[in-house]
Specification:
The protein has 20 helices and 18 strands. It has 653 residues and is an alpha/beta fold. The strands form four sheets. The protein has a six-stranded mixed beta sheet with strand order 5-6-7-3-8-9, sandwiched between helices. A six-stranded mixed beta sheet has the order 14-15-16-12-17-18, with helices on both faces. Strands 2-1-4 form a three-stranded antiparallel beta sheet, with helices on one face. Helix 9 runs antiparallel to helix 10. The longest helix is centred in the last third of the chain and has 48 residues. The chain is globular, with a radius of gyration of 32 Å. The two termini are 42 Å apart.
Length: 653
């Protein structure tokens, strides 16, 4: 599909990557990883054609369509959300506009010969439009928008009302609807909540084209990737499998390289010792000279890179607080006319590590601001426990850094009594090593500033830490450091993040924020997902919860009673399926008849003779348009009923 041959790119004197040679196929799900600044986005821009390599070439098939989602907020203004997304399917959009233009000309012209000519063109375009899925496009776009979180947003409203994060979702939906042969995705999960992230992962698993993505979300890569490309010290390294498999393969490769290097060094040392010992002796001089020539011919193995090794550093642990760390009682909070919380109660206890989850706009950031005390409440009480010190990391924490300071000076403002050795150790734990500590804050990238801000927070941690999206801008290595620090932290933690791996690694309690309510789930993220699935089953119609009912009775009743209940559940499922099946059959018959009639309308419109009878032409055209709408509506109803029936059948099994 697309091939790269010996692609090389520099920025100034710094080599980003060299000798990049690889191919993509439609089955590839490739994760492109590497530290911030390694050149990942640059490589995507070269593949997309936005940049040219310094040397090498990119070869692609002539018909290949490449779609590129950048990290930049694109200016998508002046259309409704749905119109903007639909415009991504350029060929369908072009045909739709052409069909409307021809229809308008047919209705306005009095020239019968022209009507015949336009009618033939109209019929041909209609046939092509239908063949490429034009009539299903709007339905597909609505489904994608719903998956990306546009549930309570009017998709027929204007894009001018959307924030940058929601505009990025529109850009992603537009790209997915257009269905290019190769998707290039630069941090596609950055602006998604957990539900939308999980939906996107599932959607991309079934995507018919190839995918090359930059992501620092370990769980997302594990769930999707079948290959990993790493930019490591200006080289492109290729691995098969997901991130966990990559990590294992890389560790094994490093061990082999280290052992090979050590063996060679040992052999070189022994040979050199022989040469040094016997080169002055006449009886051994010839052998020593021979060994010396052997040394000169050895293809020396480079010393393994140790720069990427993790620094083991223990952060200071906070003072022990009271058991009840913070209590919220009967909290009311609103912004202007919009109510966020109405009378919620919440208590955080010592040692809890809580992840706040829920859809975007549900109030997670508002809740963490209430906990931190940085936002006022309309009514209720916020009460801190004894000896509680609060530290709050907001999404805008980077703006509080003093750009004129060096890194060492900036971290010193959080710990003025610490010595330079200790501060450099902390900076080293966050990958700022050697002379990096003397850099000005102003020259740091977004990811580097995030690491510095987190280092400041943890240099003398409070016993209640509140983190709002701390992984934004962080690469994989930095996220691992943060995860390790938070796992070892002995105080109370409450965080918001869409990094599922971080939640799973750190959190021991999940609090779901949704529709003004807070619901606590004790246990890790995996247990939360299990409980949510149980709740989903139990909240549906009794037909959909037969398994849950069966399980409960299985625990309490004999095998005989169990069989009776299973039979009763199957019978109930059958009774519920029967009217659904009847309705599905009726819709299928209706669709069969209407589709046949619709095809006849198209055939009539393709016949030149029809345009001689103006009244008959308008009659067929009106029926054609009516049938099209009815077929679309009945198809959507059929899909919903079929899904319900399938769920009942699977529950019965």
């Amino acid at each position: 599909m697309i091939s790269l041959f010996n692609v090389t790119k520099k920025i100034g004197d710094r080599m980003l990557f060299s000798g990049g040679t690889f191919q993509f196929s439609t089955k590839d799900r490739i994760a492109l990883i590497g530290p911030n600044g390694a050149g990942k986005t640059t490589l995507l821009e070269i593949i997309s054609g936005r940049l040219s390599p310094d040397s090498g070439e990119v070869v692609s098939a002539k018909s290949i369509r490449v779609g590129y989602l950048t990290q930049e907020v694109i200016n998508l203004r002046g259309k409704t959300i749905l119109e903007e997304v639909l415009s991504g399917a350029s060929e369908i959009d072009r045909l739709s506009k052409k069909i409307r233009e021809i229809m308008a000309k047919i209705e306005s012209t009095m020239d019968e010969n022209l009507k015949v000519k336009l009618g033939i063109e109209y019929a041909a375009l209609q046939e092509k439009f239908e063949a490429i899925g034009g009539y299903q496009l709007e339905y597909k776009a609505e489904k994608i928008l719903a998956g990306l979180g546009f549930v309570n947003i009017d998709i027929r409203g204007n894009t001018d009302q959307l924030s940058g994060g929601w505009l990025m979702r529109v850009a992603l939906a537009k790209l997915l609807v257009s269905q290019p042969d190769l998707l290039l995705l630069d941090e596609p999960t950055n602006h998604l909540d957990l539900a939308s992230l999980v939906w996107l992962e599932g959607f991309l698993k079934d995507y018919p084209g190839g995918i090359l993505m930059i992501s620092h979300d370990r769980a997302f890569i594990n769930g999707l990737a079948n290959r990993v490309f790493e930019i490591d010290q200006s080289k492109l390294c290729f691995y098969t499998g997901n991130y966990d498999q990559f990590e294992k393969a890389k560790a094994e490769s490093a061990e082999i390289q280290q052992a090979t290097y050590e063996n060679q060094q040992k052999k070189i040392e022994q040979t050199q010792q022989f040469v040094d010992r016997f080169r002055a002796k006449a009886t051994k001089a010839r052998q020593a000279q021979s060994r010396l020539k052997q040394l000169e011919k050895i293809d020396r193995i480079a010393a393994p890179n140790k720069e990427g090794k993790k620094v083991n550093f223990s952060f200071p642990q906070p003072e022990r607080s009271a058991r009840d760390v913070i209590t919220l009682h009967n909290i009311f909070k609103s912004y202007d006319a919009k109510s966020v919380f109405e009378g919620i109660d919440l208590k955080l206890e010592r040692g809890e590590k809580i992840a706040l989850v829920g859809p975007n706009g549900a109030g997670k950031s508002t809740l963490i601001k209430i906990l931190s005390g940085v936002t006022d409440i309309n009514q209720g009480e916020r009460r801190l426990g004894g000896k509680v010190n609060v530290a709050y990391f907001s999404q805008h924490q980077l703006e509080t850094l003093d750009l004129s300071n060096s890194l060492l000076e900036e971290i010193g403002t959080a710990a003025p009594l610490e010595g330079q050795t200790s501060l450099r150790g902390i900076l080293g734990a966050f990958l700022f090593r050697g002379d990096d500590v003397f850099k000005k804050v102003s020259v740091l990238s977004g990811g580097e500033k995030s690491r510095l801000a987190l280092a400041k927070l943890l240099v003398h941690p409070a016993n209640l830490i509140l983190l709002d999206e701390p992984t934004n801008h962080l690469d994989m290595a930095s996220r691992e450091i943060l995860s390790k620090a938070l796992k070892e932290y002995s105080g109370t933690l409450c965080l918001i993040t869409h990094d599922r791996h971080l939640i799973q690694e750190v959190a021991n309690t999940i609090i779901e924020v949704d529709q003004g309510r807070v619901t606590r789930f004790y246990g890790d993220y995996g247990h939360y997902l299990y409980k949510k699935e149980q709740m989903k089953v139990s909240s549906t119609d009794s037909a959909f919860k037969s398994k849950t009912t069966t399980k409960k009775f299985h625990e309490k009743n004999s095998a005989k009673e169990q069989k009776r209940l299973e039979a009763e559940a199957r019978n109930q499922n059958y009774r519920l399926r029967k009217p659904l099946k009847k309705k599905i059959d009726a819709i299928e018959k209706s669709l069969e008849m209407k589709t046949a009639e619709y095809d006849k309308c198209l055939a009539h419109l393709a016949d030149q003779a029809i345009y001689a009878d103006k009244e008959r032409f308008h009659e067929i055209m009106a029926r054609h348009n009516q049938l099209k709408k009815e077929i679309e509506a009945e198809t959507e109803e059929w899909e919903e009923l079929s899904l319900g029936c399938e769920a009942l059948i699977s529950d019965d099994v």
